[in-house]
């Protein structure tokens, strides 16, 4: 009789331990997939936002060590509206998805173009900017048509929509791939390639400071959109960010952000309505 009671108790304990183990594993998996909630971010007093550190006029570090740019202004506003400090996570283009999926960042504002491929692995909030792929080259040998790139050396930044376009759609150029914006623009200045391709808004800003160059091709492919990226399945952060973008559009934040942080870097070719989305 005693043995039966003991074995019954053992069986019950095994079942209880099994239930708690499954629950713990499930909770852990759910947490790792969904990232931190808005409530957890507020409780921690800090939001982690992935940004560029070398891309004027969107996100860069000035000579005094302060972060500046269009995306930085948005990051600061998000932190202010959440009532928390912003911890900047500096990334290159090809590290943005990993920063979100690994939990290093809660939101990515590193000039993140929405693409079908990226939407399979992360979630995008409402867009706040529109861009297209462009090509810049020296005025003395200006490239104005994509067919002029046949057999030419073309600089691209790894992990960008420009790299995807010239890998999948137009394959006749010889691609020189770089990890960072600093590296790619240095390579162009050093004469290592015939042209550079990237989001046209970057290029408009760069050629203004480098008058020997011009954006000869202003748009390739379809118009694209820039949006905050969040970890796949993180509905809490996604919903809050959607509401935040909608509110900021309605109160004219992005027009003001453009005038302060983008307009001084662009030439007469670009207007606020070419970049911002007011809806």
Automatic annotation (TrEMBL):
The keyword Phosphoprotein does not apply. Keywords: Signal. Residues 46-264 form the Solute-binding protein family 3/N-terminal domain. InterPro entries: Iontro_rcpt_C (IPR001320), Solute-binding_3/MltF_N (IPR001638). It comes from the Bacteria. Residues 46-255 form the Ionotropic glutamate receptor C-terminal domain. The keyword Signal applies. Pfam families: SBP_bac_3. PANTHER family: ARGININE-BINDING EXTRACELLULAR PROTEIN ARTP, MEMBRANE-BOUND LYTIC MUREIN TRANSGLYCOSYLASE F. This is Periplasmic component/domain (HisJ).
């Amino acid at each position: 009789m005693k043995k039966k009671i003991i074995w019954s108790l053992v069986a019950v304990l095994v079942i209880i331990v099994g239930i708690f183990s499954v629950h713990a594993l499930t909770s852990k998996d759910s947490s790792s997939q969904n990232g931190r909630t808005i409530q957890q971010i507020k409780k921690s007093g800090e939001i982690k936002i992935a940004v560029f550190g070398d891309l004027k006029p969107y996100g860069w570090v000035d000579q005094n060590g302060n972060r500046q740019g269009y995306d930085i202004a948005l990051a600061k506003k998000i932190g202010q509206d959440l009532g928390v400090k912003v911890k900047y996570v500096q990334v290159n283009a090809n590290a943005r998805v990993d920063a979100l999926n690994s939990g290093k960042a809660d939101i990515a504002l590193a000039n993140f173009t929405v693409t079908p491929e990226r939407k399979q692995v992360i979630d995008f909030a409402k867009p706040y900017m529109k861009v297209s792929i462009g090509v810049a080259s020296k005025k003395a040998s200006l490239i104005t048509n994509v067919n002029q790139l046949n057999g030419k050396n073309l600089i691209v930044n790894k992990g960008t929509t420009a790299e995807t376009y010239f890998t999948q759609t137009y394959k006749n150029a010889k691609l020189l791939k770089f990890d960072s914006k600093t590296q790619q623009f240095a390579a162009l200045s050093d004469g290592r390639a015939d042209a550079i391709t990237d989001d046209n808004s970057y290029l408009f800003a760069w050629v203004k400071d480098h008058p020997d160059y011009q954006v000869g091709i202003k748009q390739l492919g379809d118009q694209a959109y820039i949006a905050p990226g969040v970890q796949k399945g993180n509905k809490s952060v996604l919903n809050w960010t959607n509401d935040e973008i909608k509110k900021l559009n309605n109160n004219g934040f992005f027009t003001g952000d453009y005038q302060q942080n983008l307009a001084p870097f662009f030439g007469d070719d670009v207007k606020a309505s070419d970049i911002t989305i007011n809806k």
